[in-house]
Write a structure and sequence with these properties.
40% strand; mainly beta; elongated; single chain; 47 strands; seven-stranded antiparallel β-sheet; 731 residues; Immunoglobulin-like
Length: 731
């Protein structure tokens, strides 16, 4: 007796229908061609998404285009750079540390064509244009050729004689990758590997993995596939299971076959009805229980629409059953294709419940396991799983396979994905501002802030303080991408005490993806939508997009925090900056300096997309130190003189609390009062109370008689003279 069987590599649904690849028992095929002793299982989808650095970790062979994490095969210790800034005049110095690392990552045990995008901790590190989002001194791709040379950095560190070329292994090397964006550690990386120019057929994959021992024709093409496992069976098994392939042999050797049309027919004349003179029933039919087939199948795959991350498609059959089953396929395919494939496999499981055994005459020896045949008077297509010669008859074991049928309608969804903008870093825009204090409490030093920004791909820039001699001192990096732009039209002067709903501010931002939003009264009270236009601080209630990057801001609160002096100085092109404290840095603090009023500050910024540094400069006015101008000035006549009154404001508090006085915010309450004839100072006095009398004797002594005479009041601050308020004397 001799038996030839179709052996399953694995079982997905309903046995070998979905997993028919194997070897022929006996002398027909050498079992060692395909299968060796069992070891590590093939790659799961999660294996390709998590970066490892363990010895003995298998590196898969990549076909087509895939996203893989790879294995770290070499790395240096972290390189630390220490920089010290500031100090002097009783202030402590500031010491900062930055770190970088050099390392190599193996990606494929097969040569590749190129590397596309790279993600670090899920965020883009390298864009499709080859631009890096974080600083790296050098990046080299070793494609895995058989003549691959050693990497010069590894050779310099380890020695030329001890450094392998890793021939046949594709890997990349990062030289001094800046780690500040990743918590000063090597991030978890994934790579878009392009191993082939376009899709690769399953037969080509099988031929390469088996060194030509396994072939096929007309099989599906794969956009991407990761082959791994202890042997050829484990590597190609997921494809065979998912596609429902069978193994056949012939003049061309071992061949993988898809379930197509019938390759043969078993007519009634081939059935053996008597054996050794005894009548037999040549047909035996059996079937599995319905609840033995999963009621639902989930197929996990890689989805190009999700940046090659894992996607899941689930199909459900009607009828009895509670069991659900999953299938992991390390293949790149669209959502529609994955859903259709899952439906085919679930349908094959349902159809494959039907089994049949036939006893035939010797002519059935021409029918080999794996062939799909039709049987007279029996509907459907049947695959031969076993051929046995016994008792002067040939016994065939068959299982029903799906025939040509309808497909699921298209429209499967890949699911939502948060995708980072893949755009070049672009040029940096730098803006310096001298601001009033943004918090309650009196400031003791000027508040100078630096904001940096750019296009959609911009991330950050290195900042430098420039000396008068042109020397650059590093002070760290900018904060996140600030929302900034320019005014499209001049904003006229407005009310200092009422919400302006008549006028609107028109601005164009740096990039179309920058966004402005509205705010209610409570949010505005908490400081939302505070912005700087020129030198004026203001807030807006509503933001309306009127162009790709253009906005109309309305419901304006003008001249905030004592900046009303700048309300009438606006023009087209005024710089606009949304004040968000987490997107601002204070260069003086980074320098360990306080800044002197009257001095100047010049800053330079350079990002990954800048050809040369971008600079901005300002003269330090110390707006945070300047008391705001008094308000509610009054003049009334009394005994031939004039009594001048006013209400103070404070740089230490901007909220009206229970109707009481604002905090003084200075060491003492003092005011400078000047009598002016036009711009000529006639009299100047100092007072410690919010009022002063210009009596008749003073008026006579000063010869006051002109209509242009006025009085000007300014608070004398601890660190700076306040801005003045003026009112006519009407003498």
């Amino acid at each position: 007796m001799a038996t030839v069987v179709l052996t399953a590599v694995g079982t997905v649904l309903g046995g070998p229908i979905g997993a028919a690849i194997g070897a022929v028992i006996g002398n027909v095929i050498d079992n060692q061609i395909l299968f060796k002793p069992k070891g590590r299982e093939g790659s799961r989808l999660s294996d390709l998404q998590v970066q490892t650095s363990s010895y003995g970790t298998q590196v898969p062979k990549i076909f087509g285009t895939m996203r893989v994490a790879g294995t770290v095969i070499w790395a240096t210790d972290l390189k630390e750079v220490k920089s010290k800034s500031g100090g002097g005049k009783g202030r402590a110095s500031v010491t900062t540390y930055s770190y970088s690392a050099s390392f190599a990552v193996a990606l494929s045990a097969r040569a590749i064509r190129s590397i596309g995008r790279i993600w670090a901790d899920g965020n883009l590190l390298r864009g499709s244009a080859g631009d890096f989002k974080s600083e790296v001194s050098a990046f080299r791709v070793h494609p895995g050729g058989e003549d691959q040379a050693v990497d010069p950095l590894i050779a310099a560190a380890e020695g030329m004689t001890l450094t392998p070329g890793h021939r046949g292994m594709a890997y990349v090397l990062f030289e001094d990758l800046a780690l500040a964006d990743y918590g000063n550690r090597i991030p978890s990386l994934t790579f878009e590997v392009e191993a082939d120019d376009g899709a690769v057929s399953i037969e080509a994959v099988a031929a390469e993995l088996s060194d030509g021992a396994l072939g096929g024709a007309g099989l599906a093409a794969l956009d991407g596939f990761a082959a791994g496992g202890a042997d050829i069976g484990a590597a190609i098994g997921p494809l065979v299971e998912a596609q429902g392939l069978a193994l056949g042999t012939g003049e061309a050797g071992l061949q993988l076959r898809a379930v197509g049309s019938a390759e043969g027919a078993i007519g009634a004349d081939r059935l053996a009805r008597r054996i050794n003179g005894q009548a037999i029933d040549p047909v035996e039919r059996s079937g599995g229980a319905a609840d033995g087939v999963p009621v639902a199948l989930s197929l996990r795959h890689y989805d190009a629409a999700r940046d090659y991350q894992a996607g899941v498609q689930r199909v459900v059959r009607p009828g009895a059953g509670r069991q659900e089953q999953g299938m992991e396929l390390p293949v790149v395919m669209g959502a529609d294709d994955a859903r259709a494939l899952a439906a085919v496999r679930l349908g094959a499981a349902w159809t494959g419940r039907a089994m049949m055994a036939l006893r035939c005459d010797w002519s059935a020896l021409t029918l080999a396991p794996g062939m799909v045949v039709t049987v007279d008077d029996v509907p459907g297509l049947w695959r031969i799983e076993e051929r046995e010669w016994e008792a002067m008859a040939v016994r065939l074991s068959l299982r029903r396979v799906p025939g040509a049928g309808g497909a699921l309608p298209t429209g499967a969804s890949s699911g939502a994905i948060v995708r980072q903008v893949d755009a070049p870093h672009g040029a940096t825009t730098l803006m310096l501002a001298d601001l009033p204090s943004l918090r309650d409490g009196a400031a003791s030093a000027p508040l100078l802030v630096a904001a940096a920004s750019g296009g959609a791909g911009w991330r950050s820039a290195a900042l430098f303080v420039m000396s008068d001699s042109g020397e650059a001192g590093a002070i760290g990096r900018s904060a996140g991408r600030a929302v900034m732009g320019v005014a499209d039209a001049a904003l006229p002067d407005g009310s200092r005490v009422l919400v302006d709903r008549e006028q609107a501010l028109l601005v164009t931002l740096l990039a179309e993806d920058m966004d402005l939003g509205g705010a209610d009264e409570a949010a505005l009270a908490q400081g939302r939508n505070l912005c700087l236009l020129g030198e004026e601080l203001l807030q807006y209630e509503a933001a309306e997009r009127i162009g790709p990057a253009s906005w109309r801001l309305s419901g304006l609160r003008r001249g905030l925090r004592g900046s009303e002096w700048a309300m009438d100085a606006h023009g087209v092109g005024d710089r606009f900056l949304l004040i968000e404290e987490d997107r601002l840095v204070e260069p003086l603090t980074a320098m360990g300096a306080s800044g002197e009023v009257g001095a100047s500050l010049r800053l330079a910024a350079i990002g990954l997309g800048d050809v040369e540094p971008v600079e901005d400069a300002l003269a330090i006015r110390g707006e945070a130190l300047v008391p705001p101008a008094p308000v509610h000035l009054t003049v009334r006549g009394e005994d031939g003189g004039r009594v001048v009154g006013w209400v103070r404001r404070s740089r230490a508090g901007w909220r009206w609390s229970n109707g009481g006085d604002v905090p003084l915010g200075e060491e003492s309450e003092r005011y400078r009062v000047r009598v002016l004839d036009g711009e000529r100072v006639v009299r100047s006095v100092e007072t410690g109370a919010p009022g002063w009398t210009y009596d008749a004797a003073m008026i006579a002594a000063d010869g006051a008689a002109g209509a242009d005479w006025a009085v000007e009041v300014a608070q004398i601050g601890t660190l700076a003279m306040g801005r003045a308020a003026r009112i006519a004397l009407n003498l």
